[in-house]
Each structure stands twice: as C-alpha cells, then as structure tokens.
Amino acid sequence: MLFSEINFKKEFVLASCMKIFIEKDEKMMEKKFSGKIIVLLKSLDINPTSVLVVKNGSLVTEEDSVNDDDSIKILNVISGG
C-alpha cells in the first residue's frame, strides 16, 4: 500500500465521524456514533432535559436516531421566571 493510499483511507475514516457542536462548552468535536440521541447525550455526560438537539438543521427529540453522517448541535435550554 502506498503512503498516499494510507492518507486517503485515514481522511476517509475521519470524514465519516459525526460532527457535534456543544453550545455550553463552545466546543466542536467529532465522534463515531450510531444510535438514539438520548444515548449520545448520556455518553457525552449531558443531561437530556437541559438541552435541545438539532440534527442536520432540524430540531429532533431524544428518541430520534443519529449516525456518523450527521451534523449535531446541542443547544442550551434557557428558562426564566
């Protein structure tokens, strides 16, 4: 295998990771994951009742599924009284 083939395969694998933006930490990360949003949030140690999740530009529920091709934004819920 040529060096350029190795680099291509490495970039291809990295490109297939889910892209996640966490508003609270103002952090962008990549993660290999496929499953329900509630499981993703728990794996990131995020309380599901304190956030809204946007998948590929659309608001979703914690029961919806996500995979490596998705772009996720985890936004803080702000309430007042």
Indicate the topology.
Layout: H1 3-15, E1 18-22, E2 27-31, E3 35-36, H2 37-43, E4 51-55, E5 58-60, E6 65-66, E7 71-76
Fill in the keyword field for this structure.
about 80 residues; alpha+beta; Ubiquitin-like (UB roll); 5-stranded mixed sheet
Instruction: Report the order of strands and helices.
Output: HEEEHEEEE
Strand content: 25-35%
- Give the biggest beta sheet: 5 strands, mixed
Distance between the termini: 63 Å
Total beta strand runs = 7
Report the CATH C-level class: Alpha Beta
Would you identify the regions where 5 or more consecutive residues have pLDDT less than 50? none
The helix content is: 10-25%
Output the number of helix runs.
Answer: 2
The quaternary organization reads as: single chain
Please identify which CATH superfamily we are dealing with. Answer: Beta-grasp domain
Structural class: alpha+beta
Total count of domains: 1
Mean of residue pLDDT?
Answer: 87
Q: Main sheet: which strands, in order across? A: 2-1-7-4-5
Structural notes for this entry:
The protein has 81 residues and is an alpha+beta fold. The chain has a single domain (3-76), classed as Ubiquitin-like (UB roll) (Roll). The protein has two helices and seven strands. It has helices at residues 3-15, 37-43, and strands spanning 18-22, 27-31, 35-36, 51-55, 58-60, 65-66, 71-76. The strands form two sheets. Strands 2-1-7-4-5 form a five-stranded mixed beta sheet, with no helix packed on it. A two-stranded antiparallel ribbon has the order 3-6. Strand 4 (51-55) and strand 5 (58-60) form a beta hairpin.
